[in-house]
Amino acid sequence: MTHVYLCGLRGTGKTSVAEELGCLLHRPSYDLDAEIQKISQKSVAQIFSEGGEEAFRDIESQVLAAVAEYPSGVISLGGGAVLRLRNREIIRRSGHCVYLHALPATILDRLSSDPKSISQRPRLTTLSPIDEIEFLLKERQGFYREVAEFEVTTDDCSVSVVAQRIARWLGQGDD
Ligand code: S3P
User: Which of these, 164, 70, 149, lies nearest to 173 by C-alpha position?
Assistant: First the structure.
């Protein structure tokens, strides 16, 4: 299957861009966290609170392997889906990946103004929210760049502009 994967930290716009890009490319879009919730019948927060981050990562890897076999689509990955080598291999083998990035201050702004964020996005460290974002960016940036073939900065761009840029990069956009 050749998918288009979107990777990047929480709050970089992956889910909204995946939906828009799916429409532009006439392909289905999937959100890895939503698939995890559908398959496990549990919310992400519930999986974290019952089994901790490792339990979540195990389920995330299993669901990614299953989603990679879906018909060709646009897949928005959870922010930490690139942490495991096996996941990075699956992503590279089954599609093209785009890294969406934004400044930590932009991410904090978006997450703080999203009412679902607090209940649906478990904290990953004991750091303050801005320090957590900076820490995760340092930890993960190398992995995002390892799997992605293209990068888009989303700070000042609308969802549709980001989706159009990716479509053009794929050779399927309007000029
Ligand atoms: C996580 C990001 C979340 C979700 C889980 C862990 C992370 O996905 O997978 O809460 O480790 O950054 P989003 O990036 O879609 O919010």
Answer: 164
